[in-house]
Amino acid sequence: MPKSSPFSHGPGLKELHPSGFRQHLSPLQHRFYETHLREKARPEHLLYHGLRELPSPFLLPDLEPALELLKEFVRTEKKILLFGDRDCDGVSSTSLLGGFLKKIHRGELILKTSNEEDYGLCPAALDFVKKNKPDLLITLDFGTTNHVQIDELASLGIKVIVLDHHEIPERIPDCYLISPKRQDSNYPNEKICTAALALKFIQAYLYSSLEEYNRATWIGDGNSLFSGYLIFRGELLFQGDRQEAESKFNLSIKDESHTFHSSFPEREWFYHEFLKYPAILEQYLQNFDLAAIGTVSDMMPLYGENRIIVKEGCKILFKLNRKETKHREGLFQLLQLLELSDKHVTSKDLGWGTRTHDQFRGKDESYGSRSRSFIGGKSRTCGVGSQRTPKTQRRKKRKNQKKSFQSGRFFKTKERTD
């Protein structure tokens, strides 16, 4: 491979091999890797990424008991309230989980995001919850710091599940707190948004409907006749001798044969189990659109898992924009307003398109208006302010062009003075 000049982009990631790849990087790529990626992800995970590389949702703390609680409340048709933050991640995650529950829950379901209230379970938000008296409250993008308010709700008989990605305080609420930042979390990635957590929660719910849910899998690792991997719900429980594994874990085990192409056999097998059920897999994949919007809008780092979520989400949004799928009519209308390319949808479209639209309207509209831009049925549900959106985007574009022009003049002047 020819040596890169200091000013070239260097080879594409797909051209590189994980073994000894750094020697082929351009100076810019090498600098970026050393300062941003060395401690954050394995090189091969950066180079070869896909759905089979995604960690299991069951590595998140409290996910399994929260899942069983939600399934019980869905089965018994209890009253469920989803309450999310007002920002794009909060709206995306609330719309994501709310849209899923609308398909499976026959009981009363209330969806809300904060509007004029302060952040979190402030007095106004707490009054709203008390007034509606749900059997189950699920907070999205807040709740980690609201232990006092959650204790009060618990005293009223209201069960609480918190999906949040913010920093963990000294005292956490007495509820099911699904957060990758908890000290007892086994999840490998702390920097994921709440919309990604909602996606994980949905994935776990779908997986719990499969016969593989309560069964472990034994797959030989090729080291010896009796050596292999013991995998349960996407988690690698044991690698080594089969007899030792059986003595340590009291699980129903099924033998399978599989040739792994990933550095994470447990992740690859977890995805492989979804491949057996195309309809379930399709339901899972359709939720990447809002997870991608939340990831980009909340400015999560786009490497590893987040990169995969955004890449797959852009694929779904592209299909939606071309009417190849019709699972979110409101979001389709929003995509039409943004006049995206008919060839692809990119992370830039997610950041400067959907996020701008949401924030433009988020200051003076309730969840009902904002969320229907994502999951609504009729075009009029995303019509409030929508006609101003292209004009606002053009004004923003002209402003950015002006800044770019001024910056260009500055550097040209600096070159002459130097």
Automatic annotation (TrEMBL):
Region of interest called Disordered, as start-end residue ranges on this chain: 1-20, 361-418
GO function term, MF aspect, one: exonuclease activity
SUPFAM superfamilies: DHH phosphoesterases
Pfam families attached to this UniProt entry: DHH
Source taxon at top rank: Bacteria
DDH domain ranges (all copies): 79-207
Coiled-coil residue spans: none
Gene3D superfamilies on file: 3.90.1640.30
Biased composition (Basic residues): 391-402
PANTHER family per UniProt: SINGLE-STRANDED-DNA-SPECIFIC EXONUCLEASE RECJ
Protein's UniProt name: DHH family protein
Species assigned in the record: Leptospira alstonii serovar Pingchang str. 80-412
